[in-house]
């Protein structure tokens, strides 16, 4: 019994003499402040009559509406360059871009939009030729956006069959679908945003206010509807 008592006393002494285990001190992650993400935004819009805004005031085409809305939402929009003319095919647009002043050809833009192809269809162009030339234009747009895929936005070809000029011609709609299938496929392969506004244009006969006074091109209100689809993509990209 005496030995047992001595043994217990020794154990207690040993435990009392053990050094305390070090407890790791919790570390607080460094506090980081969000950097100033305010960006001076300039826009490059490439296309044809649908980008130029044939038969509507310049301020009401969709690139200018985009600029105005971004500015109203607090973004620092400093410029808009439109390279677009009524009647241009893909090859004519590419030539026009090449003929721009060097400061334009070598510039990097915050946002680049591309809407092209209706005149390839209207003039009976070969869809395979369109495929090649559209991809070249998409690469041009990507270069002008500084290689940032999230800053390029392809807008689908509207369907002018749903206008007084088109008179609901089903062949036009089928061909527009064919060209849009091509440009959508290439756009998505590149991981670039594709903004499908064709469904809006197909309301043109039942909603005459969506068609401009010339009976063929989109009205300012149709461009506003396009903006409703385009703007969320743009704002998401500007946050990245």
Structure description:
This protein is of the alpha/beta class and 240 residues long. The chain has a single domain, classed as SGNH hydrolase (Rossmann fold, 3-Layer(aba) Sandwich). It is 46% helix and 12% strand. It contains ten helices and five strands; from the N terminus they run αβααβααβααβαβαα. A five-stranded parallel sheet has the order 2-1-3-4-5, with helices on both faces. α3 packs across α10. It is globular.
Gist?
The protein has helices spanning 2-17, 49-52, 62-72, 90-98, 102-105, 118-122, 127-144, 170-189, 198-201, 220-239; strands at residues 40-47, 76-84, 111-115, 152-155, 193-195.
Q: Strand content of the residues, in percent?
A: 5-15%
Tally of strands: 5
CATH architecture: 3-Layer(aba) Sandwich
In CATH, what is the homologous superfamily?
Answer: SGNH hydrolase
Any low-confidence stretches, pLDDT <50, length ≥5? 1-37
CATH-defined topology: Rossmann fold
CATH class: Alpha Beta
User: Pairing-aware structural class of the strands and helices?
Assistant: alpha/beta
Described by strand count, sense and barrel closure, the largest sheet is: 5 strands, parallel
Mean pLDDT: 88
| DSSP helix fraction | 40-55%
Q: Please compute the radius of gyration using only Cα atoms.
A: 30 Å
Count the domains. 1
SSE order, as H and E? HEHHEHHEHHEHEHH
Global outline: globular
Task: Report how far apart the termini are.
Answer: 77 Å
Order of strands in the sheet with the most strands? 2-1-3-4-5
